[in-house]
Structures are given as C-alpha cells and as structure tokens.
Amino acid sequence: MTQLRQRTSVRILFAAVAAVLMLASLQANAQAGPPLAKVDGAWETTWGGGQAMLDLAQTGATVTGTYSGTNEGKLKGTIAGNVLTGTWAGAANDGGGFVLSFSADGKSFAGTWGIGASNTDGGPWVGKRK
C-alpha cells in the first residue's frame, strides 16, 4: 500500500511539473506575438497628392526614417507584426501620425497619415520597395 501511494505521488508530481512547463511555454509563445516585418530600406511612396522617397532603418520593433520629395521630414514608430504605427515631423514644423500595413511579401505597404493627433485625416499613404 505504501509503495502504491509513493508511485501515485511521483506520478502526480511529474504531471504537475509537465503542466507547469507546458503553461510556461504557451505563455512565452503568446507574449512573443507575430514575427516582425522587415521594413528597413528605400521605399517609393505617394500620399495626399505628393510623392516621397522614404528611407527606413529598423532595430527590432523600433523604426526611424527620413523622407524627401514633395516634402521633407523624419518619422519614428514601432512595428508589431506587419503594422508600423508612429509619428512624422515635417521640415515646415508640421507633423502627425501614421499607420502603415506592410504586405506579406515585404514589397509594398498601404496605410494612412494624419495631422496633429490624427493618423488618418491626411488620407492614404502607399509605397513600394525600391
């Protein structure tokens, strides 16, 4: 009887350890989220009646960049999966927000830009990798 209790206790202990390890693995995978799109490089873009070359640099989820063409300025943002959200600041002391969704093949994006606190009221912003 004592040996049966000991075996049962060992089995319960192993099952508990396995459950804890499985939950830890699931939690780590859930926190990791989808893989980050690789967006650094040169992009030919159009937005609200203008055109710009957009040069992006990516370090992990942080993206910075400059644009030049119809207007000039800088941007910074954070990418989650294939969506880049951030702010832009123009050379004319204007600025606003943006949201860009990158294609699965990494060759294009489509999104919106805005003025001030908005990231949509400026209209569409699209681009293709140069």
Element layout with pairings:
Layout: H1 2-32, E1 41-47, E2 50-59, E3 62-69, E4 73-80, E5 83-90, E6 95-102, E7 108-113, E8 123-129
Antiparallel strand pairs: 1-2, 1-8, 2-3, 3-4, 4-5, 5-6, 6-7, 7-8
Describe this entry's structure for a reader.
This protein is an alpha+beta fold and 130 residues long. The protein has two domains: 32 residues; 89 residues, Porin (Beta Barrel), CATH 2.40.160. The protein is 24% helix and 48% strand. It contains one helix and eight strands. An eight-stranded antiparallel β-barrel has the order 1-2-3-4-5-6-7-8.
Strand content: over 45%
Radius of gyration: 24 Å
> What structural class do you assign from the helix and strand content?
alpha+beta
What would you say the CATH architecture of the largest domain is? Beta Barrel
Terminal CA distance: 75 Å
Domain unit count:
2
> What topology, given as strand order, has the largest sheet?
1-2-3-4-5-6-7-8
CATH class (first level) name of the largest domain: Mainly Beta
Instruction: Give the number of helices.
Output: 1
Could you estimate the helical fraction of the residues in percent?
10-25%
Poorly predicted residue ranges: 13-26
CATH topology of the largest domain: Porin
Give me the strand/helix succession.
HEEEEEEEE
| Average of pLDDT | 85
Largest sheet: 8 strands, antiparallel, barrel
Shape: elongated
What is the number of beta strands? 8
The gist of it:
The chain has 130 residues and is of the alpha+beta class. It has one helix at residues 2-32; strands at 41-47, 50-59, 62-69, 73-80, 83-90, 95-102, 108-113, 123-129.
